[in-house]
């Protein structure tokens, strides 16, 4: 006899399945004594913790606070997780998707080109959502600029760029 037991969400621990005396199977065989089977369910009900969220650009920081990017520049978004993800998180910059990659399952990095047609000048807003553990637990937490440990990046089309400075 085979069957599937669906457990309610967040069930964790030792459960028992009892097949009582006198129960008949499909072909009519009757159990002669009660049978007990132990089943242990260990559902990962702990959300993935996201930390060290950075939004970077190759330009140097101004007063160690803001980073700037110009048209056709590239902004980099990175974050760490305390456990490997079951699915890629959804990361957007001003609503545009950022494709993320990972080398070890815990550090996640993605880049996006800043184009004049898609982005308005100003602070770029990052959003990280749909964070799923390997066991399938989806986090309700959404991370934004308020959670950045480094950044944010400001898009400025007119920002002067010094390519060569000489002191005489």
Question: In summary, what is this structure?
Answer:
By secondary structure, the protein is mainly beta. It has no helices and 13 strands. The chain starts with 11 loop residues before the first strand and ends in a 13-residue tail after the last strand.
| Share of helical residues | under 10%
Structural class category: mainly beta
Number of helices: 0
- Enumerate the spans where pLDDT stays under 50 for 5 or more consecutive residues: none
Could you tell me the radius of gyration in angstroms?
A: 26 Å
Shape estimate? rod-shaped
Strand order of the largest sheet: 8-9-5-3-12
What is the total tally of β strands? 13
Q: Which sequence of SSEs, written as H and E, runs from N to C?
A: EEEEEEEEEEEEE
The chain-level mean pLDDT equals: 81
Cα separation of the termini: 90 Å
Sheet-strand content, in percent, reads 35-45%
Let me know the largest β-sheet: 5 strands, mixed
Polypeptide structure, described:
This protein has 168 residues and is mainly β. Helices cover 0% and strands 37% of the residues. The strands form 4 sheets. It has a 5-stranded mixed beta sheet, with no helix packed on it. It has a 3-stranded mixed beta sheet with strand order 4-13-10, with no helix packed on it. β8 (100-102) and β9 (107-113) form a beta hairpin.
Keyphrases for this structure?
mainly beta, three-stranded mixed β-sheet, 168 residues, five-stranded mixed β-sheet, rod-shaped, 13 strands, 0% helix
Topology, element by element:
Elements: E1 12-19, E2 35-42, E3 50-56, E4 67-69, E5 74-81, E6 90-93, E7 96-97, E8 100-102, E9 107-113, E10 122-123, E11 126-129, E12 148-150, E13 153-155
Parallel strand pairs: 3-12, 4-13
Antiparallel strand pairs: 1-2, 3-5, 5-9, 6-7, 6-11, 8-9, 10-13
